[in-house]
Amino acid sequence: MNHVSRQFPLLLPALVALALLVSPTWGALDYHASLALAPVVGLCALAVTLQGNSLWPRLALLTGLPLLTLLVGSLFVANCNRVYGIQFYVLGPLFSAFVGVGWARLGLLLAPQNPRKVAWLGALLSALLPLAHFLTTPQVFAYHGLVGYVAGALYEDAVAIHTPYLTWRLFDLLLWLPVVSLPRPKWTPGLVVAQLALLGTTLAVADAQSWRISSIRTTLTQDVIAPDQFHAHLPDTPFVAENADLWRNDVAFRYNELARAFGSAPQEPLELFFYANAGQKQRLMGANRVDMAKPWLGQVHMVLPDIGSTTLTHELAHVFAAQWARSPLGIPLRYGVIPDAVAIEGLAVAMEWPIRSNLDPHQWTRAMRQAGLAPRITQLWSLSGFLGQQSDRAYTVAGSFLRWLGETRGWPLVRLVYAGEPLEDVTGQSLGALEAQWSRFVDDPLLHPLTDDDLARARLRFARQGVFEKPCALETGRACQKADRFGAMDKPKRAVAVRQKLLAAIGQWVEQGFDDPELHLDLADDLAQAGQLQDAIAELAALEARSGPQALHPLLRSTVESARADLLWRLGHAVEAEAMWHTLLHQPLAEPFLRTLEVKLHFARQPAASEAMQTLWLTGAHPVPGGVDAVLEQLYVALPNDPVARALWARRLLARAGVATGVRLLNDVVANALVELPYTTREAARQVMWRHVVDAEVPDVPLWTRLVAEGAVPPSLVAEWLRREEAPPKPRDARPWWASRFPRAHRSRQNE
After folding, report:
1. Are residues 192 and 93 both part of a single domain?
2. pTM for this one?
3. Are 219 and 201 members of one domain?
4. Hey, which of 136, 198, 388, 594 has its CA 20 to 30 A from 721?
């Protein structure tokens, strides 16, 4: 038995690696596998070192077996970049083993008679520092010697090796190398002093490199404050400074709406961090493509939302819900440890109640169920069921169920569930019985009507694989992010090379249904941007030729046909391209897509719009000097009476400056272009109505504009507009953003 217990630490990491192979994401030799293995390998290395006897051969076995297991498993589990995965393994489990040896040797140095207690206690207590960092600061990422790098947000799909991680591991090496290589008792006092000094240096440099706690508040300096409600940090840009009160009013509206829904507001003011873009958010707090909240700190972190965006309500709901939870973190925990994802995200969706393509979550759930894609409630409520689903499916179904539960059983009951009470005890019914009742409700065609077009959109939206379902998810995310970056830098040939390398890597998994057609669409776009139009057409033709299990979804096929029409227009075949666009205009595509088709058809034969066509709306669009504003301004100057040119330029005015002029132009479009340009007109009316309800500068909306806008949105949004009008925002500061900095120039402009 003693022999078995001595050998167990050698085999445990390999057994964990073997268990990981059941998941296409965690079983790949990449970030997730390294994250799972690193603490296991580190602590096993600590145990093996304390055993003594043939240490280095045993450590080689301990670290080599898991790597070998993952490499052999890569014959069955999708691995698209083994070399990069090995780098993650070196920085993760291999370095963690080194740190584990260091803790064991330190225990032997400080307490030769009882080294186990000192080594294990020190190793476990060392986790308190990054844990405290996560719990008390805005950051969601962390670094730890026995764990490596923790990215934070679960749904990030582009986790990469970065300079701060390398820096941290370099200091791990410097910190523990003397302990591992020079374990002599007479050097212990000096060694401990040196280690403490080096630890202090490590923390100082790591703070400068990555722990950007204070710099968040100094970077986002355009603050807006609502007493007793919130303190919002906005990006430090002239436009945001001039329009900061719009965001303040929008946050205040959503805050008050949630206060009514929850029955009370948080006792302390909330702290909201709005970032200029996803890159800045990732740099400062760690989350890239994911917006998130820290309820126990009363904090929300997200890219600056559009005025009226319901995503703000979703993140605020997480913080409001903290007053219902009994845990110190302000979230429901199962068994006091595991976050209850169904309750957390389901309640946020139920309170946000997002409308997508004019359908609410109940309707989307019904469409999902008819398509055979909806997860069972009993499945979601299991410990791993929620995270094992594609996020869009899980969030939508959980939100529908929690909304139904609140509206039929009362929100006080939902409050008890959020507090951690078992659902069966609170309702007096089993989860299966509740699911059956909810199913009958959500499947009712009179309550939740759907069209065939809605069903087609649902099949496309919810059939996509999630991060934890999709093989090579992280490598795909990293490659796409890198290619997009090259495209934005106007380096399309480098973007093409990156995407072609990715597609070659995942090619072996295509037959198993793991290919993503949208990757080929992106490649065609890069090829067109690089001027390789025939190659782009060939890429699209190969997509359209797919049949059997690999055949494209009809709506995705429409996207491919639109891209091919774009390329035909570029090659001078305008008549053929227009015919294809006309056909697509009658497909059940998303309205923004249909609006773009309408714009392309409108400008297809107007020479003055050629540059705008090629740089803004066609496949292969490329960055231009001056950006979108310069192109649309030039288009408006060339075609001042054209309704689409006026509408497009007016929207830029609303987004940058000149609100009054922008609203006037949009009202003119609504009055004169409804029959000829229905999608452009509907969007113009919505923009005017939105600006009216959030901005005191915009006067009453003409009746025809209001009617078009209200006919273009679901009733719930019309009701929100009415509530906003009943509580109008405070008057704006009419001065431009630069007036406080250059008051003399502002006075002279007024005198003119």
Report:
1. yes
2. 0.88
3. no
4. 594
Tokens of 582: 């006309």
Phi and psi dihedrals of 244, rounded to 5? Answer: -60, -30
Q: Of 296, 246, 288, 245, which is closest to residue 268 (Cα–Cα)? A: 296
Name the burial class of residue 257, with classes exposed (0-12), middle (13-18) and buried (19+) by CB atoms within 10 angstroms of its CB.
middle
Pick the last residue of a domain from 600, 622, 644: 622
365 closest CA partner among 387, 351, 352, 349: 349
Residue 244: pLDDT over 80: yes
CB 287 within 8 A of CB 153: yes
Contact 399, 393 (CB under 8 A): no
Domain membership of residue 477 (yes or no) is no
DSSP string, 588-627: ---HHHHHHHHHHHHHTT-GGGHHHIIIIISTT----TTH
Alpha helices in 263-390 (DSSP H): 278-285, 311-320, 341-352, 361-370, 377-380
Specify if 272 maps to a domain.
yes
Domain identity same for 262 and 399: no
Residues 249 and 337 in one domain: no
For the chain, the 3-state helix, strand and coil shares in percent, each to the nearest 5, are 65, 5, 30
From 302, 323, 344, give the residue that closes a domain.
323
User: What is the end-to-end Cα distance of the chain in Å, rounded?
Assistant: 94
Q: How confident is the model at residue 511 (pLDDT cuts 50, 70, 90)?
A: low
| Full domain range(s) for residue 258 | 213-323
Choose the weakest-confidence range: 7-16, 355-364, 467-476, 732-741: 732-741
Structural domains of the chain, count: 5
Q: What pLDDT is stored for residue 405 in this prediction?
A: 96
In whole angstroms, give the CA distance from residue 412 to residue 195. Answer: 54
Q: What was the pLDDT predicted at 399?
A: 96
